[in-house]
Amino acid sequence: MGGGRGSRLKELTDRRAKPAVYFGGKTRIIDFALSNALNSGIRKMAIATQYKAHSLIRHCQRGWNFFRAERNEYLDILPASQRVDETKWYLGTADAVAQNIDIVDSYGIKYVVVLAGDHIYKMDYEIMLRQHVETGADVTIGCLTVPVAEATAFGVMDVDQAGRITAFLEKPKNPPHIPGDPKHALASMGIYVFDWAFLRDLLLRDMADANSSHDFGNDLIPDIVRNGKAMAHKFADSCVKSGLEHEPYWRDVGTIDAFWQANIDLTDFVPKLDIYDNSWPIWTYSEIVPPAKFIHDEDGRRGSAVSSLVSGDCIVSGSAVSNSLLFTGCRTHSYSSLEYVVALPRVTVNRKAELSRCVIDSNVVIPEGLVVGQDAVEDAKWFRVSEGGIVLITQDMLDARARAVS
Question: Any keyword Zinc-finger (predicted)?
């Protein structure tokens, strides 16, 4: 599922869908779900797109075009194209699948794994699929183990000792705990495994229901819990860890604060998510670019980066970068400093700029001497400041500032 608006990411999704937002130095958010599928042995994939899909489609065409149809493998793009009704786009997550039933039929599959395209995690879906088959479930739902106090923000599963879901509760005030574990609850990850024949019939019935919102979490899953067999699958049972990760890692990077934090987490000495694990690679579109370059070695004008990720085609010229993440093609010029900065591709930071605790959108040119992250009141005049105090900078904001002060 790659069609969400991602409105909580504010201006970062003005021109791109949330799954197409850059993450981790050279990847996009959707690369994690796609890489999990590929590494799990899945070779038939489809992405349902809708809002502002161009950059997402272009990324998949460029970075995920290695499937070979003659080997019965492929990645299909399924845009909202009013196939069922000329007045309807995708009305919900379930409707996005329902409107493409004929296409999915043509794949000749027995099981279908439904994924959200906008979360950061590593997971072996084969383990979840095996559980689904062995338990004879109508649906198997991927679940996070979260503290009961935090479960009020999720859709929560009430399960019995065998892991069968007995109730699905949306953001409950008093979340049910896991049997035998009163401190934790099971929260839905939005990952589902179905028998295709079962899901197909369910989707057809849902399409005919005028009172349905045509959403998996709101409509289909509660119906199966009441009338069928729904099983919970704990993320911890299939989370992929390299040995450096101490606990299962899953993040919804749907807000500016969460997006900034998850990127900055990668700069830790031992990050919570190991993206250097070659046994479970995160595949993406790899641009052909030269190596990163660091120049000048004078006091106060030394090109350096400490506890940072610096991608290819970056030039750190006489500037100090610390605890930051620079995507492909960034340029930082003399006497500037960056601390806890996430700079998306092809950002230019001109001389004597001082930046801290900010996210800079792609292709932004930071003017000489700009100071961000030291005065929240001043920052809020020109830029978007999140609840957590992270400053989002776009070129439109800088242009408006330039017009106002000129």
Answer: no
* Strand 184-195 relative to strand 155-159, pairing: antiparallel
DSSP code at position 310: E
Burial of residue 191 (CB within 10 Å: 0-12, 13-18, 19+) is buried
**How far is the first Cα of the chain from the last one, in angstroms, to the nearest whole number?**
45
Buried b (16+ CB within 10 A) or exposed e, 102-133: eebeeeeeebbbbbbbbbbbbbbbeebbebbe
Length of the chain: 406
The string of pLDDT tens digits covering residues 179-226 is: 999 999 999 999 999 999 999 999 999 989 988 888 898 899 999 999
In terms of pTM, does the model score above 0.90? yes
Q: What stretch of H or E contains 95?
A: helix 93-98
Q: How many CA atoms lie within 13 A of 223 on its CB side?
A: 18
> Which region, left, alpha or beta, applies to residue 142 given φ > 0 means left and ψ of -120 to 50 means alpha?
beta
Q: 191 and 121 in contact (C-beta within 8 Å)?
A: no
CB 16 within 8 A of CB 55: yes
The two three-digit tokens of residue 336, written as one number: 């500037």
Binding region for alpha-D-glucose 1-phosphate: 90, 155, 170-171, 188
pLDDT of residue 153: 85
Distance CA 365, CA 99 (A): 42
Average pLDDT over residues 310-333: 98
Residue 86 has pLDDT above 70, yes or no: no
Task: Identify the three-state secondary structure at position 250.
Answer: strand
> Residues forming the annotated binding site?
90, 155, 170-171, 188
- Could you tell me the two tokens for 337? 């400093």
